[in-house]
Task: structure prediction
Amino acid sequence: MTQLKYLILVSRQGKIRLKKWYTAMSASEKAKIAKDLTPTILARKPKMCNIIEYSDHKVVYKRYASLFFIVGVTPDIDNELLTLEIIHRFVETMDTYFGNVCELDIIFNFNKVYDILNEMIMCDGSIAESSRKEVLHHVTVMDTMESNDNLERVLS
Amino acid sequence: MTSLYAPGADDIRQRLRPFGFFFEKTLKDLIKGIRSHNETPEKLDQFFTQVLSECRDEVNSPDLNSKTNAVLKLIYLEMYGFDMAWCNFHILEVMSSNKLQQKRVGYLAASQSFYKDSDILMLATNLLKKDLKYDGNNDVVKVGIALSGLSTIITPSLARDIADDLFTMLNSTRPYIRKKAITALFKVFLQYPEALRDNFDKFVSKLDDDDISVVSAAVSVICELSKKNPQPFIKLSPLLYEILVTIDNNWIIIRLLKLFTNLSQVEPKLRAKLLPKILELMNSTVATSVIYESVNCIVRGNMLENDDFETAVACLERLCTFCDSPDPNLRYISCILFYKIGKINTDFISRFDKLIIRLLSDVDVSIRSKAIELVEGIIDEDNLKAVVQTLMKQFVDEDMVILQTGNVVYERSKRIPIIIPENYKIKMINTIISICFVDNYSNVNDFEWYNALMMDLTMLCQDISDKTLGYKIGEQFRNLMIKVPSMREVTITNIIKLVSNDSINRQLSTILRECIWCLGEFSTFIENGDDLIKVMIGNSGYYSHDVQEVLILALVKIFSTWCNNVREDKDIEIKLILKKLIEFFDNLSYSSTFEVQERSVEVLEFLKLSGEALEKDSEGLPMLLSEVLPSFFNAYELAPIARGTQLNLAIGEDIDLETPFLTKEETDVLLDGQKTDSMSDLVSDTSMDEQAEPGFINDSDTSYEEKEPLNDSDNPFEVERKKERMTNPYYLGEENEEETHKSKDLLDLDEGNTAGGNPETIRLNKPDNTLNSLSVSTVEKDKKKKKGKKKKRVQVLSDQPVIEAAPKKKDAFQKLHGNQTALTPSKKDKINLRMHSQLENFDFSNFGPSSSAVNESLQEGKMREEDELELNRLEAKLNVQGEKNNLSDPEAVIIIKKKKKGRRTKSKTKIKPRADNSPGPNDLLRDHSSTDI
Result:
């Protein structure tokens, strides 16, 4: 349904908060993309569209508070509006999970964010789970099992 | 909610403290540390190095807890650009932990860092198999994690092993497992298509699942698979259509639309059934993304025929409302769809000119740049000026554009200058030129305006770094000169202005080539040619070699016209100019460029003779200047010819353009002992051609000998041509150039003329022209005055080659590029998938009547596989050599490695088993190097 190439979370100061690559790229390619995109997107004004063309693909981004969610998509295959919707869904899900999510939540619980992301976007960015409830349910189930683990360890 | 790890890790520390472990940092400590150390970059760097070395120690510790903690920290540090591939084996250990918490971290780390590391993937395979053992309900989450991790780790052999397990999971009572199994199967099918063939019905039955998320996953997977190979899914169309009609979940509808797009591309029959439904959907839904996807489906699924105005209008009207929406994203995507629809038939979009002109001044430059691509579709005689004006204004007003930003609270307008990036400027200039040029200037009715426009563009182009724009504008000036005779005086005045303008000479020298050519060709319009010659010689420092080539003949032409038209008493000045020219050409005859040298020497000798004659004859001009020199250039007037005409000229079948005159050995000998001998100049030129195209060497000997007797045919044309070829070494080079530079749309003939300095070649070609009925028509001059504009219309010829010679060339071309084309399909795969997928050319014929197309693709696949095997074999050879060379010659290894890297990715899966059986030191090294690409 989609063919996301990567997802990067960048703060307004240009700091990377989260990266997820769905296609194999060399370290230098990755670094280049992050380096090129950050200033371009930070420089864009409100009221401009959220889709830009970058090298051979398109980039869809969306700003939520101080964070920019940047997604690389495959032109002609991805629906840009849907990609925006997926970003929004992701933010909504985090919001419910953390309860009024803010940048600090994402920084300190980045592994949780990855878990949510992995539940939402599967198979190298080609399948997205649209149900927020579903995602949250599984993440919380895993969390409970983890805390059980913790408990066991402490008790042992 | 706070992190669950933090207290856990704290616990660890507390419990370990009595034993002397004090230095572990939790993830929280790490993050806090980074935040507190970021005053200076040095301090931060120091902190990072410290943390990294700590992690290195912790990761080696036998305690899984601290190992996990370290891995977690490393994942975080990876975001700061610290590679974590070195600890892949430790990650594997963490993954194999029994504790879910640790397993989860392990899989997370694996998905972040395992890509392409074949050794680690092989080890992970076994672990994964164990984790996927589905026994009882407690393991749901564990299996879930493993299934998620599968997508990163899958290999063909693993796919084969676990396919059956996954199909059993499809029957699980838990929707979560079913869903995960379906998504995991997607990766399996890509690697092991037999699984899909054998269990097709079982898989498809999941489309009827009770749980919506399972259906959604199944639709998604089928959609993805159909992208690679739509054939097996076409028979599902009725079922899918049923789902599309009944379901009301927009996410799934969009997926289905995407799926139908793929199917409809190969099965046109679907159109009749689908199109009404999609149009209905478009009208009934309120979700913009569904509307967008519907239009996308119609356009990309080949459902819009180029005469189906009704559908097109339905789509375009929806897009129109998008364009008026305040949401810039909608405006942007509708521009893209407009373009796609316009591509099917430009008539569809032509009535939307007002809208598109409005979009050209959108606040967002990226929307403008999409709208500009549409301009060509809507342009006509009436709106051309308006469009060009809109575009030109953007150059001038650049900083004045105002953006209104209304804040909900403050409600005030802000003035934000829109920065217009250079690539957009380049796009604008290119568009302006191409919309005016379209249909041989049929939309331009005021050439004075066009002339002024070109002058403006020239001035604008000076500040733009893309210097090819100069060529394009130069071509426009040249076209104006040739095609619009009534404007020639105005145009040539402009051209003279440009040529004598210092800053143009400095900053946009690319425009000069065409301009100078015009000056030479139309020198009759120039009265004071002597001054112009002086100016051009004075500016010659700016001219590059390709300008110099044209300049030489232009100067002679101007001189020829001028000295035959001046009054009698200007003898002294003629002598002066002639002396200047001789001096100038004398310098050029030492030029490092062969072409310049050749032309200047040719001219120089003639001018020297004329100079001597001028000294002798005190009465008037010598014959050489008054008769011979003009006869070089004024044989007949130039008329415009269609692009590609020259290519259509019949090339005598007995002329062999491809065989080099010399064999490779002979060339080498000649190149080694290059002498100042004039003959060697001639030969080395051809040999240079040969070097550039080494593919031709292979078949040199035989065909060269065959050619000889043929050339002695009685055909007078051929004899003449042959003579020309023999005497003029440039001839061959010119012809090659024409083959490659098709962009020179007209006047190639003239180039040949000026180059050879021999008008006979042209006359020879002319009858050919008419023979091939490639008529070059010109509109009578008389008509033009009535309209106040003058135009020469050129009949545009089809690109089809008339003569057999062209296909032959193609063969040679293919021969040359054979290697590259063979490699391209696999390259595509590399982009799509991490590992080479075998689905695209898989034969599904087992479960249904096999269509010939599938069979064909199978055969292709086989061929490709054979190629691949061959490649692998070669590669293995290279490896062995590389290892050998490793010991002796470090330089050779580097070269071989490079070659390998290119091919490596495609044959990865095949090589792997060998690497795994014995991951020797060399193999390890190589794999790492390939991951670093």
